[in-house]
Specification:
It is built from 9 helices and 16 strands. The chain has 296 residues and is an alpha/beta fold. The strands form 5 sheets. A 7-stranded parallel beta sheet has the order 3-2-1-4-5-7-13, with helices on both faces. Strands 9-8-12 form a 3-stranded mixed beta sheet. Strands 6-16 form a two-stranded parallel ribbon. It starts with a strand and ends with a helix.
């Protein structure tokens, strides 16, 4: 993707930042967020991203242009205080208002989450499987707000004729963040890592590099009605990646087994492989890179 005008929401987020920086090298990229992180905003602006301060909870997006070629939505609100009005407005209503503002876009990518699925243990969840309140043990509003935002994106795609992809992201990670990165920091601090009693705790981590590489492909497969696809890597488990991290940093993982921890969310990636191909970075390689980057 070169020479395009692209709007990216959530450009300071763990996932949005590397995508924004990569796209800005070859395109005119606009980023919208509240920009509470001044250092992240400065880094984006230094890379050429046009940063506009916007509150997704309240904005009608009149402060941004309406002539973007593509829109990539990585914005997320997951308050820990269960403010349903705020989180539904910021995650759900904002999607419809943004798509109304940018209805001339060639494609819209909405980053959702595999947190939308009904808990299913070791079953590989496919895009047609049941949805449910998966992440309540971590974030009270997260799963429901993500489901709501998907419904709004699906409706707006049909209402405005915007080709749309809804990509359900599993466990993003890389050299500077993500769940495995936080587990590494917990291990270094001697903090036990919560895992569900119904082990192994299976997930499908996907490296930032694979996320960056496949964003243009996800935009290419956008359709009306919306394309819905899992966005994930090969299967691993918390036990496995913490074991590898422990070997690399010389710390034995402390695992806190509980029925109240987040259980497995592991994906059937058949549709992803058909549409955009598989993730390329093996989780062992990615975790090793993550640890090495943190040590340098």
């Amino acid at each position: 993707m070169d020479g395009k005008k692209i709007l990216l929401t959530g450009p300071t987020s763990t996932v949005g930042l590397p995508v924004a920086l990569d796209l800005a090298a070859r395109n005119e990229v606009w980023g919208i967020a509240r920009f509470g992180n001044a250092a992240a905003k400065a880094r984006l602006e230094a890379a050429g991203v046009h940063c506009v301060t916007v509150d997704l909870e309240t904005s009608d997006f009149a402060e941004i242009p309406d002539d973007f070629d593509y829109v990539v939505n990585f914005a997320i609100a997951r308050g820990g205080d269960a403010d349903w009005d705020r989180d539904l407005a910021a995650n759900g209503e904002s999607v419809g208002l943004l798509m109304a503002r940018c209805q001339g876009a060639k494609a819209f990518l909405h980053c959702s989450s595999t947190a939308v699925y009904q808990p299913a243990g070791a079953h590989l969840v496919a895009e047609t499987d049941a949805l449910g309140d998966n992440h309540r043990v971590m974030f009270a509003t997260y799963s429901i707000a993500k489901i709501a935002s998907e419904v709004v994106a699906r409706t707006a795609a049909r209402q405005f004729g915007i080709p749309t992809t809804i990509a359900r992201l599993n466990v993003p990670y890389g050299d500077t963040g993500g769940w495995p990165w936080f587990h590494m920091k917990m291990m270094e601090a001697g903090i036990p890592i919560p895992i569900h009693a119904d082990g192994p705790n299976l997930f499908n981590p996907i490296h930032f590099d694979d996320i960056v590489r496949t964003v243009p492909k996800l935009l290419e497969v956008a359709t009306v009605p919306a394309t819905i696809v899992n966005w994930a890597g090969a299967q691993s488990s918390i036990e496995e990646w913490c074991g590898l991290i422990g070997e690399l940093i010389g710390v034995e993982p402390q695992l806190d087994v509980s029925d109240h921890a987040l259980g497995s969310v592991t994906t059937d990636n058949t549709r992803m492989h058909e549409l955009i191909g598989p993730a390329e970075i093996d989780w062992r390689t990615g975790i090793t890179r993550m640890v090495e980057a943190d040590r340098n």
